[in-house]
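Researcher: Sequence recovery benchmark, item below. Answer with residues only.
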């Protein structure tokens, strides 16, 4: 055995590894027995072993207090270990970052009706691929196809795992082994590994770049068409904006050129709102309906960006093109699971009642929340939070500018409001803010803010009145403790 550091010999309050109980003794404790009765022997014994291993390691370093080996303390530690092991790693958080559709925080929130639909259809068997009228095998896409065609004016629709998959599949189905023409101004990276040129390569198509970074003209597309061309494509630049001396070609004009040569034209909208956001007082974002009307043969967009549903890739367009996409073998690998389909169907159904959408669809509800209401909430919460953070931080209500997020309308800002948490001491301010941000993240319901200009900002747009606010306030004493 390794020699113990001298201090643990001198200091009688420190425990040595010899003082540790056996695993059997630990498991004979009253709380351990109750845990075994509840969870079974396997989990509790594994946690008991892990607990003793951790204590032994600390005892060897001379850092274990004898008090921690008292029966009661050990039983409590075992209980804590079991609870922690069973705690889900994916958990709810409060998104006070100011970005409503935040990719790192799960993007769109599901509507109540989508959650209900999941609960009702997932606990038992369902008609995922069963035609109840005919009594035979059905097609899972048909559960949402009619809704998607109604909402976009397209002839046909199919759905896959996400929009990246929708683009990959569209290119593979329509242009494998042939050429796809795309403007140089639209060869975007959408974050992570989704870069347009690489998607083309992965789909087995050859990318033909036309125009320049800032300007592309109709004649650029027309001149690039040749016998190897299979598809003309436009890509929404989503997360960046070109400003100044720029020009790009509308879908209608690209589609006209494609159709002159008997070729299809596809557009990747990225977010793609299903309704005109201007009707709800927000900046306009292109809709699939507009693009179908402009003559696009295929339009792809995400399920969990502005649409406000689960992660999915939606592909709508002309029947012939959609049929080819559906028949591509890759479709089977990218298809939607039943959970997603259930949530997607329920979300799309909400669009049949556009007058109610701003209440029923959380994404739209949050995006249209009036700044005045957010400001009032900030004024209401400021004193309470100020009290919890005193004396190290001051808290003031502030006007903020938020974002829609997920590449939607990157230059538009949403007037919002929130709380600025400011360290009282200028010295060591950065450290104090990091510590505060961590304490907020480690709360039972983690709070995610953003640090800017020596302040921690909590944008309250996504803290909804009622349960959210209550949960936020209820854990302030724990925040106070964590910072003490
Ligand atoms: C977000 C986005 C994608 C990727 O969509 P996911 O649903 O995240 O896979 C593709 N293209 C554009 C233009 C986008 O904005």
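Model:
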């Amino acid at each position: 055995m390794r020699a113990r550091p001298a201090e643990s010999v001198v200091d009688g309050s420190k425990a040595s590894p010899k003082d540790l109980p056996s695993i059997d003794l630990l498991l004979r404790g009253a709380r351990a027995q109750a845990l075994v009765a509840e969870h079974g022997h396997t989990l509790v014994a594994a946690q008991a072993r892990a607990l003793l291993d951790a204590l032994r390691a600390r005892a060897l370093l001379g850092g274990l207090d004898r008090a921690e080996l008292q029966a009661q303390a050990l039983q409590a530690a075992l209980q804590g270990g079991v609870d922690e092991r069973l705690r889900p790693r994916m958990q709810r958080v409060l998104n006070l970052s100011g970005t409503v559709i935040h990719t790192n925080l799960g993007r769109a929130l599901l509507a109540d009706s989508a959650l209900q639909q999941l609960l009702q259809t997932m606990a038992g068997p369902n008609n995922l691929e069963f035609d109840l009228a005919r009594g035979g095998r059905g097609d899972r896409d048909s559960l949402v196809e009619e809704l998607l065609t109604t909402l976009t004016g397209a002839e046909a629709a199919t759905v896959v795992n996400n929009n990246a998959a929708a683009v990959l599949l569209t290119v593979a189905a329509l242009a494998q082994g042939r050429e796809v023409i795309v403007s140089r101004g639209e060869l975007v990276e959408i974050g992570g590994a989704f870069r347009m040129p690489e998607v083309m390569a992965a789909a087995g198509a050859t990318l033909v770049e036309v125009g320049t970074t800032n300007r592309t003209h109709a004649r650029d597309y027309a001149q690039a068409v040749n016998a190897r061309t299979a598809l003309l494509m436009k890509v929404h630049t989503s997360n960046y904006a070109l400003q100044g001396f720029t020009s790009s070609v509308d879908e209608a004009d690209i589609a006209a050129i494609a159709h002159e040569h008997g070729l299809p034209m596809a557009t990747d909208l990225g977010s793609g709102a299903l309704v005109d956001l201007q009707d709800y007082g927000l900046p306009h974002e292109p809709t699939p309906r507009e693009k179908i009307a402009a003559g696009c043969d295929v339009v792809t967009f995400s399920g969990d960006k502005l649409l406000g549903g689960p992660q999915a890739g939606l592909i709508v367009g002309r029947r012939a093109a959609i049929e080819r996409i559906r028949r591509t073998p890759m479709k089977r690998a990218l298809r939607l699971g039943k959970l997603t389909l259930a949530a997607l169907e329920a979300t799309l159904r909400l669009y049949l009642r556009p007058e109610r959408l701003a209440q029923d669809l959380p994404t739209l509800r949050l995006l249209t929340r009036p700044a005045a209401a957010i400001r009032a909430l900030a004024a209401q919460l400021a004193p309470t939070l100020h009290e919890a953070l005193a004396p190290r931080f001051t808290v003031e209500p502030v006007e903020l500018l938020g974002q829609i997020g997920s590449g939607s309308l990157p230059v538009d800002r949403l007037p919002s409001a929130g709380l600025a948490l400011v360290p009282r001491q200028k010295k060591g301010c950065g450290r104090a803010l990091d510590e505060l941000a961590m304490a907020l993240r480690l709360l039972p319901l983690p709070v995610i803010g953003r640090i800017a200009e020596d302040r921690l900002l909590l944008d309250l747009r996504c803290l909804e009145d009622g349960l959210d606010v209550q949960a936020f306030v209820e854990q302030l004493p724990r925040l106070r403790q964590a910072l003490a």
